[in-house]
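Please check the following for our workbook:

***
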Amino acid sequence: MPDLGMNELFGFTTLALTAWIYTSYIKGILEGKTKPHPFSWIVWTILIGITVLVMISDNAGPGVWAFIAVFFINALISVLSIKNGFENITRIDVGVFVLALVTLAIWLFLQNPLWAVLTLYVAHILAFIQTFRKSWLNPKQEPVHVFFLNFVRHALTVLALSNYSIITALIPVLLVLCNIALVLFLIWRRKDGKSLTH
């Protein structure tokens, strides 16, 4: 059996965390405790799929393993969340979707990973804005521990990278920051007041 380097060890750890995180999240969906917005998850599936292609193109190594797993899991969550309906789709939702398609076009037709990852960066931020919006309205519908574990997972993803560049590291670092920010936001919001919608 070949010896595993630190990158591979971090990579396998991110896969284990991915399985743990999303098992809990999917269980919450099936029990009706967690109600993800289907449009957001469809967009995230597209974004993560492009992220995988871009990272692989610049030799991300084990740092991309969790993203590959998340792509398929996000697709499953998208299907499971359809029952929640496509109501309350905002202009930002549509904007992120269009930006995701633009990113896909940049990757497919221009084959420019740098421009693709910069467009992905903006798209991921806009997608997270929607999660922050939903968390503001219904802070108890999003499990804090899931986003904290995502923070840890993305931090380990950065450590698992075989090659450090803007193309491979920009999105994982962004997701580290977004997830810890959302954790702090949810904790504050739950202490600050009740859900604004029912």
Observations:
- The chain is about 75% helix and 0% strand.
- The CA atoms of residues 8 and 81 lie 33 Å apart.
